Each structure stands twice: as structure tokens, then as C-alpha cells.
């Protein structure tokens, strides 16, 4: 592959350039097959802010990549895409027509990062290939996930999937809570009281904030006002974003302002990046935060390196007036793998991904190499999970980054080995299965959002025009009572078109649009 270069080209132009680069016929693709030697192909992968990945001097020389190649008889050329610049780098990739054989997307066929490439014919439909070479994939991956990768009746990507959409959870330093002598908080007010007590105890970050309220949106969930792409509701016979709930939005913003005014959240929360966020938690500086539940045990091991007596526990998220709470429910697809239409041997690539859902792959990604990382006797696995930060990073990389197609809800193999692991699985099956906020969703993204990026939200943070006001209101630079004015500004900048389009498609049940209703 050529190296990517920086260009300032819009995704619309990128799409027009892509239409001419797809030349191979569907029939040729379906009849492909490995000629007998190693299957060589390039694959782009978002770094996901994984330390092990971003610190690797050469990911293609990594020992786990080499072992994966041995097991799958492949020769991989992994092209890393920086996590923070993912959308920008993807658009550049399509604009320069420097497209790997396999491209990782974030979810469905119409994701912003895909820049219209599926619609432009850059990737091949996979139905025939999957029937011939991917039967394990078809059996293991749920129908909802395949639907996300379907365009005009054909499958265009292999999805990594999520069987439980409630993935994020509220975490607390249980050792600090016990020291404070307080019960597990349930309501917003009870949470604020715990944070106040943590501050009295000298906890530097009672509630760990983060820029764009990303992984710091706990209290928006309590009032069911997430200003995200998946969060729309019916109001007065129109489909509108949930932040139109003025009373709920003002109460959520007031909660954050109270935390800001009382020093329960960092005064610099609006500029805290993901690295600082995690480092603060693992250094023992935080009391309450949001995290992906499946990383609980690994984070706790890393935290114990700084604070040996620390104990992290996942607790019910704060509930609001309706008695509910939690975070936004995830898409049923976490990553998706698209195959370039110009690939010479797509069958070998399908076989590679089909292996990913085999028992052999599960054992490899979960435990590593027998004799080196674990032993097996009478069908029982003896595996000691790493406890040092570097070892935990490496395990996480193998289990979550390199394992490209799996149910990412949690790693059942590892968790089943310990009592703490079994407890975490129980939390998923009981507590998290009852939490979470969802709304009316449209796939692909509404045209009115694409035309007006300033008012267009992402999966887990608000549109720029909203975010600017939200931060100012928490900082006391604007009155929270002005939220109705913010809604009017959003409407004037294209929001009225969003409402009109969403309502029309909802009422007409547009056959070219997938409309998902709230799951809970």
C-alpha cells in the first residue's frame, strides 16, 4: 500500500472518485479461492486508543500477529488508523484511492467514516462468498448485526457483534465508599452526596470528567436526555431528539453545574482527553466514573499497581424521575470488515474471518498459546491472567483488538475461570440487562444531518452547536434556563429539516431506511 497523505477533500468528492475504482465482478469474487499458498492481504484497523497497539514499533512484526498468521495461513499487512483521527483518515484514504484489501468500519454500511464508499460500489457484496466459505459466520452472528451490514438487499461487511447492547456501566471505588460508610447510591441526589463525601476524604476527582462529556454522561442518562444520534423520541406527532425535553435537559445540566461549582468534577473537565481520563482512574485519583463493563477486572488489576487496596465495583447507574437510568444502548455492531471489490482472492479472506468464530480461535485469543500462556489437562484450562499493567495491556490487545469477529459483550472464557469473573457476567445478565436508554434510530443517517454537520451528533457525543452551549452552561458562562433558545438555534441551522425528514420517513416506513425502535 501507498502511505496515506493529508488532503482536504470532502467525503462527497471522495465518493465520486471511488465509483470508478471498483472493477471486479461479483461472479469473479464468489468464485475465488485460496490457490494453496499463504493468503496475502492488507487490512486497516482503528487503534482504539489501545496502549499496546499505539506503542507498538511495528504491529506487523508483533508476536501475536505472527502467531495469528501461522494459525490462519495468512500474511497480513495491518495498516493502523489513529483512533482520534479515524473519520478524517478514513475520508483521506478514500479520497486518495489508497484503499486496503479489507477496511474496518465502525458499524453499518452508512457510517460517516465510510464516506459513501459502499453506495459508490467500492466494496463487494458478500452473500455468495458467505454461503460458500462463511457458514460459521452465518450461524454465529445474529440477524440484527447482519442487517446493519445490508445495503439494497446484499451484505457488504462481516460484523463484530454485541449480544447485550448495555455495555457501559457506572463504576465506583468500593473501598472508598466503604470507608465513607455510605450505601451504594441510587438516585442523582444520593450520588451527589457520595461525591461530596469523597471530596471531604481528599479524593482528587470525585467524579471523573472528560471532554465532550464522553464517558462522563452518567447524569444525562438519569434524565433520558442523551443528545446522541440514536436518541430520538415521538413528541406531538413528530420525531425529535431527546434533548427537546427541556425540563430533563436543564436538570441534567444543573447536576453537572452543581458538581463543577462544588469541586466534585475537575475545573478542566472539558479538556480532559481519553489518555488523561484513564490515567487518573488507574492512578487512584477518581471516585466515580463511566467505563466499558467488560474491562472491569483489567482496570482493577492496573489500578492495584498504584493503590493495592483499591476495589472497583460496577453499581446501578443513577435513576431519574422515571426510576430508570443507564447509558445509551450500543449498536449491535462494534466493528465491521469490508472487502475491497478489487481483491483477487476474497474467498481466502472470508475463510480468515470464518476461523475467527471457531473454537480454536476462541481458545487462542482468550488464553494465548498452550504451553506458553496456559496449560490444559483433562479438558480444563489452567490460565493465570496477567496482573501487571503491561501484561494486562497485552491480554486486552489479544482478546479485544486482534480478535476481529466475536461477541464483544464479555470474554466468557476468561471470566469463567474466577469468582470475580463469574460475578461480572452476572452483573451483565442482571443489572446491565435492565439499564440503558434508547430511541428511534434511522439507518442510513438522515440526509439533513449529513448536510448540516454543525447540528449532527455522533454515537456518544452531542453535535458541535449543542456541545458549545452545554459546556458554557456548566461553566456558568450561559444560563441553563436558555436551553429553549439552544433548541431554536439547532432548529434554525437545519434541525427543522431533520425533524421533517425523520417524521416523514417514520410515518411512511421508507423501504430504503432501517428504522429501529427503542429496545427498552
Q: Would you kindly provide a written description of the structure presented here, covering whatever features stand out?
A:
The protein is α+β, with helices and mostly antiparallel strands and 520 residues long. Helix content is 39%, strand content 15%. The protein is built from 22 helices and 17 strands. It has helices spanning 11-18, 26-30, 51-54, 63-72, 86-95, 127-133, 135-140, 143-148, 174-180, 188-200, 218-222, 246-261, 274-282, 296-304, 346-355, 359-367, 389-401, 412-415, 419-429, 447-451, 464-474, 483-508, and strands at 39-46, 74-81, 102-105, 150-151, 154-155, 158-161, 168-173, 205-207, 232-235, 238-241, 286-292, 312-315, 333-339, 374-377, 380-383, 441-443, 514-516. Helix 1 (11-18) packs parallel to helix 5 (86-95) and helix 14 runs antiparallel to helix 17 (389-401). It is globular, with a radius of gyration of 23 Å.
